[in-house]
Amino acid sequence: MARILLAWELGTTLGHLGRLSLLGRELRARGHEPVFVMRTLQYADDLLGRHGFRYLQAPVWPRVAESKSPPLNYSEILQRAGFLDHGGLLCMVKAWRELFGLIVPDVIVLDHAPTALLAAHGTGIPRALYGSGFCSPPREYPFPSMHPRLTVPEETLKQSDDRVLDCVNKALSLLSGRPLERLCDLFDVEEDLLCTFPELDHYSHRESADYCGPAFAHDLGVEPNWRSNSDKRIFGYLQPSTPNLEKLLAALSALDHEFLWVIPNIAPELKQRFEAPRFRFSEELCKMERVTQQVDIAITNAGHGTTAALLLGGIPLLLLPRHVEQYLVARNVNRLGAGLVLENITSESDYVRAVERLADGTACSTAAEAFAHKYAEFTSQKQLAVTAERIERLLGAK
Question: What is the pLDDT of residues 90-114, one digit of tens each?
């Protein structure tokens, strides 16, 4: 039996915790002992404790830098997570190493956990990156731009890399560690589990990759509850911070379709205002494997796991991305022709036109169905088995 540390550090959604829980169950079924170190303990007992898993709080940067402009490349994500403060970064790395010492893992699996990855540098513990392509940037100097519609000077990207690399190497020098030559060398690990499809990879021009398919919590939640025989069933999964959420709900509540919304922590006054027999809100997440069997259209923020699950069900999408990671997924769906992306909303009628276009047209439905047909052999169970097997191979590398 091996002890496997599953670490999650960056990101704010249930997607990380849900997919790690599934992976933990698969590893335990194979005789291993998963131990979780989580960015947030919210929902941890629901998803981990009830399965008897051990979990701990991750060391996380307490003051994520705010900026009106999105990060230009992966280096700027690191800058906002403490990688410009070598003293603070050193403290986090030391805290992670203390956790390694307490847990004594045989393998470390890292779900968007760059500080844990840095802490594991030079320890000899095999490491596996686990997550969408966004969590595993190409091994290039500089890290590429995340904005395909902007022309970002290469020198600007290099400066971003170099500033972070300087901070990283200062921390490593104080730990008597070997410095990195390039920032991308941080991601040179023993196993890179790219949990996506080529069509949905945030870095669509990756030179080489071994994709193992998306990881998402297919069995998390309750059965969706539909109550009418409306012509179209539309499922919405949005965050309450979605721009113009009230405008969206007001516009779509007048349509002659049945809507079921999952909006965690929605303002009670919004829910009370719009709740109706054919326009309802679920208090809990819904099982995606059931949603994809029952709906005609889905409206989401373009989170990677949710998007992948819906496309595997052949569902056309209306996407409202909130940040650069989701925008890159939305761009890929739009490129496939399987959905519409709304970014600059000028009126409530924009939402109505988009939904009716998806309801009346066939192009997006045809593209979504073609994607589902291409990956008809894919299942979450197969993906978990492949992922676990690749992690197990690392045990023989120690």
Answer: 999 999 999 999 999 999 999 999 9
Nearest-angstrom CA–CA distance, 111 and 132: 9
- Count other C-beta atoms under 10 Å from residue 364's C-beta: 22
**Which helix (H) or strand (E) is 9 found in, with range?**
none
**What distances in angstroms separate CA 337 from CA 170, 198, 302, 332, 358, one per listed residue?**
46, 15, 14, 9, 11
Place of tokens 């600059």: 344
Cα gap 103→125, rounded to integer Å: 12
The answer to which of 29-43, 63-77, 147-161, 329-343 has the lowest mean pLDDT is 63-77
- DSSP β-bridge partners for residue 126: none
286: three-class secondary structure by DSSP: strand
Residue, of 47 and 229, whose pLDDT is higher: 47
Give CA–CA dist 110/315, Å, rounded.
30
Over 90: is that where the pLDDT of 150 sits? no
- 3-state SS, residue 301: coil
Q: Which long-range contacts (CB under 8 A, 24 or more apart) does 138-143 make?
A: 138/184, 138/203, 138/206, 138/207, 139/184, 139/185, 139/187, 139/188, 140/184, 141/182, 141/183, 141/184, 142/73, 142/75, 142/183, 143/73, 143/74, 143/75, 143/183, 143/184
Cα–Cα nearest to 8, from 45, 55, 65: 55
Residue 309 — pLDDT band, cuts 50, 70, 90?
A: very high
Short-list 308, 332, 328, CA closest to 380: 308
How many C-beta atoms surround the C-beta of residue 141 within 10 A?
A: 16
- Classify each residue of 285-294 as buried b or exposed e, where b means 16 or more C-beta atoms within 10 Å of its C-beta: bbbbbbbbee
Give the SS3 label for residue 283. coil
Coil/strand/helix, residue 46: helix
Radius of gyration of the chain (CA): 21
Sheet strands side by side (includes 191-194):
54-57, 33-38, 3-8, 107-111, 127-131, 191-194
Tell which residue, 313, 361, 320, has the closest CA to residue 337: 361
Supply the pLDDT for residue 345: 75
Percent of the chain with pLDDT over 90: 83
